[in-house]
Amino acid sequence: MKVEGLVAMVTGGGSGMGRDLVVQLAKAGCHVAFCDVSQAGIDETVKLAQATARKGIRVMGGKVDVTDREGLQRFAEEVVSKNNDKLHLLFANAGIASHGPLIHDANATAEQIASKEREWDRCFEIDFFGVLYTLRAFLPHIVRQDKGYVVVTSSVNGFWTWPEHSCYTAAKFGVRGLTESLLVETYAKAPHVQVACVHPGGVRTNIVRNSTFAKNKEGKTSDITGDFDKIAGLSSAEAAEWILDGVARDHTRILVGYDAVLWDKMNRLSPHGGYKVFGALGREGIAQWDPTRASENIVQAKKVSLLGWLRFLKDGGLFFLIFSAPATAMNLIRQLTGASASQVLTLSAILALVKLQRSSRSRI
Hints:
Elements: E1 7-11, H1 16-27, E2 31-36, H2 39-52, E3 59-63, H3 69-81, E4 89-92, H4 110-143, E5 148-153, H5 166-189, E6 193-200, E7 203-204, H6 224-231, E8 234-235, H7 236-248, E9 253-256, H8 258-269, H9 273-283, H10 294-301, H11 306-314, H12 317-324, H13 326-337, H14 341-361
Parallel strand pairs: 1-2, 1-4, 2-3, 4-5, 5-6, 6-9, 7-8
Helix pairs in contact: 1-2, 1-7, 3-4, 4-5, 12-13, 12-14
């Protein structure tokens, strides 16, 4: 769908991908409304969008929390009233990162367990119900138009998961199910409205920095934020470009980043292979799954027995490390073996191709 001359709404537009969606839509000639919980973020987005927007393009921001159903309804009415009763595109983008397991550590205190349970509630309220409330508020206005597009942000965690991310994964799987259900409903009841589910991989935004698991026991930002920024494949501006390219191509499923594309292929080729790798990581003590101590986890890896590493690699760990976090894998293997970068690359390519070929022949 071409966005020029249309009216779009973006949630979570005060930072990250949401902000860049607003800026790029306005630059492409699309009138944009957006909401966020940060007034400072709203003001900055308006300033950036207006600086590059085409002449005559309207950009409006509002301070609205996606968990506020009445607030979303009021803002939806305001948006359409200021745009001649028009609203064609909705980007349900707002969300948070969360860290909530189902199995707690044996020495976890009652307060620690209660804290994680509260985090589950907060994650679902924003990441799942925030999307549902957004759809309820804005979808009726889009259905009334002659054409429309609803773009909902899930995550790679909407089709894949890893340890300690149970609540985030459950919410994002729910978002995917909600979006695909809407897709089927529009086919039957509103065929002029298109629907897409977005699955971003690693994107350098503040979502990890603002998460609870990015804080250590003293409440300070841990080293996981720096580690994440190093392995995240895209900037927020690049991620927005991927999303809008998917919209331009009328896609119903938009993978954002080459890592997301790869995770998707791995999931299709060997749905449980990656999960076995994570199990191997935990069993052999290669990772302690404490995201606030990411650097210590790498140090811990050096203390694992040779037999433990061999078992891990046998379970597909090398394939996983190479494809999911190339820089981390490269440094780790070089530290353990003393091999040169070119030697590691050559061996990695051979082993990865062999593993991929074997996986492609396995039953799903």
